[in-house]
Amino acid sequence: MGSTSEFNRRDLVKRAAALGIIAVPSMGVLSACAGGGDSGDNKVEKGKKSAKNPLAVNDSAGLDVVIFDGGFGDKYAKDAQGEYIKSFPKADGKVKLSSTQKIQSTLQPRFNGGNPPDLVDNSGAEQMDFGTLVAKDQLTDLTALLDAPSVDDPDKKVRDTLRPGVVEMGQFGGKETWILYYAYTVYGVWYSKGNLAKLDAEYPETWDDMLALCAKAKKKGVAGWTYPGKYPYYFPFSLYPFIAKIGGEEVLRKIDNLEPNAWKDPAVKAAFEAYYELYKKGYVLKGSPGLDHLQSQKAWAEGKALFIPNGSWVENESAKQIAKNPHFDLAVGAPSSLSASDKMPYGTIWASGGEPYIVPRKARNAEGGMELLRIMLSKKSSQNFIKQVSSLTSLNGGTEGLKLPPGLASAQAVLQKAGRNIVNPRMQDWYVALQKERIGVGALGEMMAGRMTPDEAIKKIQKYADDTRDDSSVKKYKR
Fold first, then answer.
1. Residue 438: which region, alpha, beta or left (left: phi > 0; alpha: psi -120 to 50)?
2. Lowest-confidence range among 198-202, 386-390, 443-447?
3. Predicted pLDDT of residue 62
4. 29, pLDDT greater than 90
C-alpha cells in the first residue's frame, strides 16, 4: 500500500497509504463507486500498431491520469509522462496528470458518470475496493500490456520482465489481469541500526530477545514499539508474516480464503498474544493509539521508539526526520522467531507488489493508459522511481549501477535472505473493508490499545470473516 496511507501503501494500505488519511469508506460506498454509468461510449479510435507502437495508441489522443499523492509523490509519474509525450508528440498539451490523496471521493462521480480517467493509481486510505471493481466489470484486462514487448528488450514481453508473483497479484481467480502493481514493497519491522547501537544491541532474531531489548530500552526512557493507532491495519505488515512463520504459509492461505475457523488457528493466537505482551509490559509508546501514520513515523524517526510495522515507502515518507540523525542507518527486520517449533525459518518476510494501477473499462484511451505503464516499467523509468522514492519497482532487477539508500539496501538484503520464504497475503487486495475497517480498526487497534484481549480480538475477527464469507453481495476469491 505505497503510501501516505498505509497499503497500497503504503500503500495497504504500502502502501493504505503511502495519507491525509481518513477511515476507509464502507463497502456500501465502495460498491456505489463501482456502479458505473452507461454513458461515455466515447473511446478514441485506435492508432496504427507498429514495433514502436505495439499497443496501437492513438498518437494524437489525449490521456487522463490520476495518481495517488502519498509517500511516493507523483514526480516519477510526471517524468514518465514526459517520455510518453516524446513517443507521441502530437499528444503534447493533451496529457493531463493530476494527483490526490482522496482517490475514492475524487473518482466516484467519474466512475458513476461513465467518464473515468485512462489510468489510475488506486492507493491510499480512500482506495477503491478492487474486489467490487472486478465483480462489477469496471476494469480493463491488462493482458495486452503484459504481452506487449518491453521498452528495453523487444524480444521480451512485459510480463517476463516482472518480479515473481506480480502478475498473479493482479488476477482474481481467472486468467485476466486487472491490476498492475508498480512498486515492490517489503513489509516488516523497521528500525534504526544507529539507535539499536546506542543500546549495544542488534535486531532481535527471537521474540525473547525482542522483549529483553524492549525492557532495556524502557529503562532508558525509550519505547520498544509505536504504530499508527488511527490506522492499525499497518500491524499486519509484520503480524501476518509472523503468523506464517509460526504456523506455516497455509494459515494465511486459509485466512485469505475465508475458511471456517481460520482465525482460530493456534499460530494466530500465539502471534496475537506475543504482540499483546508488548502492550501489557508497557513497551509501546504512550499515546500511540491516537497517532496517525505520519505522527507515529515521526516519533519513531526521532528515536522515541525502536520499532514500527511498516512498508518500504517509510524511507521516503520519513526522509526529512531521518536526515536529522546522520547515524540513523534505516533497516528492516523480518519477524522474530517465536520458538524453535516455528514452521518457517527466520527471515520469512512479506514482500509483494504495491502501488496498484488500473485502467478503467470505460477509459477513453485505454491503450494510452497501458502504454504509459509500459514506459514506467522500462529500466530508465524504474531507476528514476528508485532514486526518487527509495523503493523498488516490479521490474525484476533494474538496480544495476544505483547506489541504494540504507533502507532500500536493507530491503534487498532481506529479500535475498528470505529466498523462497516470502509470503503474500491477499486480504488487503480482495477484501479491503474487512482488512482495514474490521480487522484493523475494529480488532487489532482495540487489542493493542488494551481494550480487547487476544481471545476477544480473534473471536471478533472470525465473526467479521464469517460475515464477509456469508455476504452474497461480496464476490469471493481463493488462492
1. alpha
2. 386-390
3. 97
4. no
Instruction: List pLDDT tens digits, range 366-425.
Output: 999 999 999 999 999 999 999 998 889 999 988 888 899 999 999 999 999 999 999 999
Q: Per the structure block, which three cell numbers stand in for 447?
A: 487489542
pTM for this predicted structure: 0.79
- What rounded mean pLDDT belongs to the chain? 90
